[in-house]
Design a protein that fits this description.
There is one protein chain. The chain is 53% helix and 20% strand. By secondary structure, the chain is an alpha+beta fold. The protein folds into 2 domains: 74 residues, Orthogonal Bundle (Arc Repressor Mutant, subunit A); 139 residues, Endonuclease Chain A (Endonuclease, Chain A). It has a 7-stranded mixed beta sheet, with helices on both faces. Strand 6, helix 10 and strand 7 form a beta-alpha-beta unit. It comes from Candidatus Sungbacteria bacterium RIFCSPHIGHO2_02_FULL_51_29. This is Transcription regulator TrmB N-terminal domain-containing protein. Pfam families: TrmB.
Length: 252
């Protein structure tokens, strides 16, 4: 019966017999343990070292002949306390590391940018496909699209713009700088939450740059081939959003 139980706590047959011999004797030499158990003396020395590390026995080296002493049967119940303490500390450390890693992956300083390039053949479909994700991301902040709108996009993709405003709740706002163009003024008259500030003619730009939540979208539609670049980056988007907001507030 005890054989199986000793094996469960990590002691093989020889180790069990050596331990029991020391326990029965209370204090005994390596040689006498070897004679009592039939385990050769070299193996007894090796086993004794293991039992000492487990806290089951101690060794008296003060005399000419060293003696092995039992720490009592209760030492068996204590043999894993040190290991449990070490494991507990390791668990606490692992939990602390896990919390830090969670903070890192969620923290803005560790955002991983994702970049998508869309060619002209797929551009129109991509606008419709991704619009919901852009709006949802923007809703996590101020529900405002910031940036610059090239009037060529409004001219060539006006159907998409009209479709967008039909989808949206009333809290969505667009605040775009634009070129001096009648098409931009007419589009803003159609939708009360589409605010524009035309730039001076000498500051004309020829591509769109939108900041929508954690997304930055750039669209080139002035000349062919048209294309779109989508960047998902929390930090970069936040910086650009703050930049456009500051420019908007500072402009007349």
């Amino acid at each position: 019966m005890l054989e199986a139980q000793f094996q469960k706590i990590g002691l093989n047959d020889n180790e069990r017999e050596v331990y029991l011999a020391i326990l029965r004797a209370g204090k005994i030499t390596h040689e006498r343990v070897s004679r009592a158990t039939g385990v050769n003396r070299t193996t007894v020395y090796s086993i004794a070292e293991k039992l000492k590390k487990l806290g089951l026995i101690s060794e008296d080296l003060g005399a000419k002949v060293s003696y092995l002493s039992s720490e009592g049967a209760e030492a068996l119940s204590r043999m894993f306390e040190k290991e449990e303490g070490r494991l507990h500390e390791q668990k606490k450390t692992a939990e602390e590391i896990a919390r830090e890693l969670q903070h890192m992956t969620k923290g803005e300083n560790y955002s991983v940018p994702k970049i998508k390039f869309v060619e002209e053949d797929d551009l129109n479909g991509y606008l419709y496909k991704r619009y919901g994700a852009w709006v949802q991301s923007g809703a996590n902040y101020d529900s405002t699209w910031w940036g610059f709108e090239d009037h060529s996009f409004t001219e060539k993709y006006g159907t998409f713009i009209d479709w967008c405003w039909k989808q949206e709740p009333g809290n969505l706002q667009v605040r775009f700088f634009t070129n001096q163009a009648d098409v931009e003024k007419e589009m803003s008259k159609k939708y009360r939450n589409r605010f524009i500030k035309p730039l001076a003619e000498e500051n004309s730009f020829d591509s769109c740059f939108w900041v929508c939540g954690d997304y930055i979208i750039m669209v080139r539609s002035r000349e062919r081939p048209h294309y779109l670049v989508e960047i998902y980056d929390t930090v970069l988007a936040r910086n650009q959003r703050q930049l456009f907001k500051s420019l908007w507030d500072a402009s007349k």
